[in-house]
Design goal:
single chain; alpha/beta; 275 residues; TIM Barrel; two-stranded antiparallel ribbon; 8-stranded parallel β-sheet; 10 strands
Amino acid sequence: MTTSIESRTTLTNGVKMPWLGLGVFNMVAENEVEEAVKSAISTGYRSIDTAASYNNEEGVGRAIRDCGVPREELFITTKVWNSDHGYNAALSAFEASRKRLGVEYIDLYLVHWPVKGKYVETWKALEKLYQDGSVRAIGVSNFQTHHLEDIMAVGNVVPMVNQVEFHPLLAQQQLRKFCKSHRIQLEAWSPLMHGRLDEPLLREIASNYGKTPAQVVLRWDLQNEVVTIPKSSNPERLKENAAIFDFALSDEDMAKLNAMDCSRRFGADPDNFNF
């Protein structure tokens, strides 16, 4: 399944999505995102996850044009921001993102947050983009089960991906079960808990495998069948994050890591955010 950085999961419509990608949240310093994306691609990454709200789509676009890898080998994700919810607004936001990225199509387009009273209409816009062939796959981000049920009740397409905060302290077990039962691929943002990796259990398990706590967490993601997109602009850290395909966690260690779950969020609550 996940034997190399080239390993991909297959979404419900047959599109293949890399298990490991690069997240570029908060990369806004001059040339930071361009250098990070180029370094990641040269390391073997093929999936880049950005968003309109990250204000770095243009830099991502320059990097993927200059990286020397054919566009069709790359998997580019971006997202519609909260201020662009609604059918027509979302369609316009997509065109703006596509223009900033400088691409003919986007591989995965997501609704960034479930803005109350608006996300169902926005989902209909994403369905239109999918039907028109402007995007290869559509999905959501930060959706709880009840949000997913809302759009599935009226939509024609079940979200192919749900990108959520996911890590050993927030294992989203009920949401994972729901997504799996509906063949919605779960994807982890902030898999490394904003760098809070100094947990004794993580250090102990990492030591046993000759790996770092970060590598253990990312491997845990994969073995839970969750796509993961750790963020880093450091070339050595990019290589470290990608070195997770040469070992496997035992069932016992997976169980220990699963038991760390305490519903601890480092990001916003999808049922209570104000942006």
